[in-house]
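Predicting holo structure, calcium ion bound.
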Amino acid sequence: MRILLVEDDAALGEATRQSLRNESYAVDWVSEGERALSAIESAPYDLIILDLGLPRMSGLAVLRVLRARGDPKAATPVLITTARDAVTDRVEGLDAGADDYLVKPFAVSELHARVRALIRRRNAAASSELVHGRLRFDQVSRQARADDQPLELSAREAGILEVLLLRAGRAVSKEQLLESLCAWDTDISLNAIEVYVHRLRKKLEVAGIEVRTFRGLGYCIEKPQ
Ligand code: CA
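Done. Tokens:
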């Protein structure tokens, strides 16, 4: 899962980015509204965390431009962050299409919970556990179990499994996997994605789950029967 963090406070931005990375999200961080819009243009995000109090172009202006787009990116969930006394900003933000808000200073655990909830809602999942036949994947602990036996997955393998489960029944291309797993400053190749998928496929055999390859389209885990 890939997140765009828009925050002009350097210390808060760095701390937020690091805490999200520790939760296995790929995070791109920008500190200006204009940069946020060009980032949204260049990469697919599962969520945008948007500070409303930004220099020059405000977070609210960014949100309005995003929501006015005529493509699927316009529907990317947005979590706004505001100062405690900025009630009007929060109301305006929600009216402009924000999905949720956090008041600064916020607890990191609450940020993580709201991020998980918004990503779940986007993927129409009811809980943080993804269940597929005999396989269960917990998006919080990042643990996969087959018939209650833990599967040893690397962080990358778990990330790929999560994307394929959330989009079960649809083919996901190598490029899409790469974009959802990697922030700008991480460099992994399409060949590496193939290697991760190959390993994941072997590990999923015990759960009776097949990762299918559709030539030219990508990978797919079929929906459970
Ligand atoms: Ca700010």
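Residues 2-122 form a domain with the Rossmann fold fold (CATH 3.40.50.2300).
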